[in-house]
Amino acid sequence: MQILPNVYLINGFPWRQTQNGYLIRSGKEMAIVDSGDLGTDTLDLVRANCAAWGIRLEQVTYLLLTHAHYDHSSHAARLQSLGVKIVTNQDGAEAIASGDDRCIGYAVHRPFDPCRADRVIRDGEEIALGEARIRCTEAPGHANSCVIYEVILEGRRLWFTGDVIANGPACQSAEPGWAGGPDYHRPTYLETLSRLRRMECDCLFPGHGPPCLADGRRQVEAVYTNALINWR
Ligand SMILES: [Zn+2]
Which segments in the chain show pLDDT lower than 50? Predict the structure, then answer.
């Protein structure tokens, strides 16, 4: 499903899946944001959807992991075997290399397929993708591996937020992510949200629920407000 001129939803809520995957195109280069599943073979769906748009997974340069949780990262090893380079932060790299509890395999009763990161980013680092640049913002709290990827396309500032900023139906409820990970930490999460709500953002592409193509910053502020109300 094409959402914006160079942004596609490649799996997720329209297919009755809880977790979303996206593809970003910039010139001849492409990046996938997240690829995981919770019990269906999402990679076959991703492959079929991309093929419908004339894209082969072997052509994709990067897999940008928003965090190490199973539903976002479980196909990383298989994509890497196709030549896709895995991007994550230091904690994410350690988690996917070991496949330990930070990948929450226990929550889905399935073992994680370990793999090594190809590129380990730091907060504020930028990655070139065609003519665009992807800015990486570390956003711990939901998990230590959380990274938000920002790209500016056609004048719009897009954020791929994973579970840091989640959306309910029709962007009407903005909620923090799941609290069941071993490295979930509320005070850190609150600090992250406080930092993010001061940043500019036009469109939100969450790991769960529909994208929000207007008032992205307002959604971030709503999650921060929600956290302040409910976490004290
Ligand atoms: Zn998560």
Answer: none
